[in-house]
Amino acid sequence: MKIATRGMIFCLALALLLGIGTASAQTDKGNIVFMGTAAFGTTSSDGNSQTDVELSPRGYFFMMDQVAIGGRLSFRSTSYSGSSTSSVLFGPDALYFFKLDSKELLPFAGLGLFLSSYSNGESTTGFTFSLHGGLSYLLREHLSVFPEAHLDIESRDGNTSTTFGIGVGLAGFLY
Question: Domain containing 18 — which CATH number?
Answer without folding.
Answer: 2.40.160.20
